[in-house]
Write a structure and sequence with these properties.
By secondary structure, this protein is mainly beta. The chain has two domains: 92 residues, Immunoglobulin-like (Sandwich); 112 residues, Immunoglobulin-like (Sandwich). The chain contains two helices and 15 strands. An eight-stranded mixed beta barrel has the order 1-2-5-4-3-6-7-15.
């Protein structure tokens, strides 16, 4: 009788833990949407003036959108804004709306180290930002090699090389696009410890195989933009398209109401653009 009680107790205990385990397993699959408080739907300005080496750089675009609630799958585009860029010589470049939230200029004139100022008027607010057009050294070589990987097949590593100027402090930003990546992958580089030397930038991915194509854009950027991007990459694990846990302020200033700040960054970059097919 005693042995029977012990057996029954053990059976009930096992049954109880089994039910708890199943309940825990099922609860892991449950999608829980928190009732998040919606903050101000701030203006977001994606203003990158890109001058690719070997091109005129006359066609440029600026995107203006608005923050959306966390669970929204739609990014609201902002129409009806007045957008222009003025250089330090007083030349004005007007950006006209070519599609909802997309503003285009076809006669832009890029000049290395010239200062440019962005003006945006939207929702009764005046927004401004100022930056210089930063140069980038040419890419001298690109190659690939195999790197041993103890967890699986050897990895293919694609590397490009460029000579950093010795007479100045430089900052760089590179993005990699490919059909193996859900989003572009970004890396930032400073010449703090390699000033004047040859710098190499490396990219690898477990899905990088022969025949895959890498679309590489390498930029010269300002120190302020370098610091801004490092903050974003740090909190989003190198994916600037991920959701940051807070609003990281850029260089856009609201001169109408400083408390109603916009998000985004106005930057001007000379770039190297490479399409590389993995061998």
């Amino acid at each position: 009788m005693l042995r029977l009680k012990k057996y029954n107790l053990k059976s009930k205990t096992v049954t109880l833990f089994s039910l708890l385990f199943v309940s825990l397993f099922l609860s892991c699959d449950r999608v829980v949407e928190l009732d998040l408080e919606t903050g101000p739907l701030r203006i977001v300005i994606d203003a990158e003036i890109v001058w690719e080496k070997g091109t005129s750089g006359n066609e440029q675009t600026i995107k203006i959108s608005r923050m959306a609630p966390y669970y929204s799958a739609v990014v609201p585009k902002v129409s009806g804004a007045h957008v222009r860029v003025e250089n330090s010589e007083g030349t004005i470049f007007t950006f006209n709306e070519s599609a909802p939230g997309l503003y285009t200029c076809t006669n832009f004139v890029p000049v290395i180290n010239m200062e440019y100022k962005l003006f945006v008027e939207v929702d009764g607010q005046s927004l401004t930002a100022t930056e210089k057009l930063i140069a980038v050294p040419p890419i001298d070589k690109i190659d690939q090699e195999f790197m041993p990987d103890i967890t699986g097949p050897d990895l293919i590593v694609v590397t490009f090389y460029y000579k950093d100027p010795a007479d100045q402090t430089n900052y760089y930003l590179t993005d990699y696009k490919s059909d193996i990546l859900a989003f572009p992958e970004y890396t930032s580089t400073s010449d703090e410890f390699v000033n004047g030397n040859v710098i190499d930038e490396k990219f690898s991915d477990a899905d990088l195989k022969p025949g895959k194509v890498l679309d590489i854009t390498h930029r010269g950027i300002s120190k302020n933009f370098y610091n801004y991007m490092n903050l974003i990459l740090e909190v989003t694990n190198s994916n600037p398209f991920g959701a940051a846990p807070g609003n990281i302020r850029g260089n856009v200033i609201n001169t109408t109401d400083t408390n109603n700040f916009a998000l985004g960054y106005f930057r001007l970059c000379e770039t190297n653009h490479i399409i590389y097919t993995v061998k």
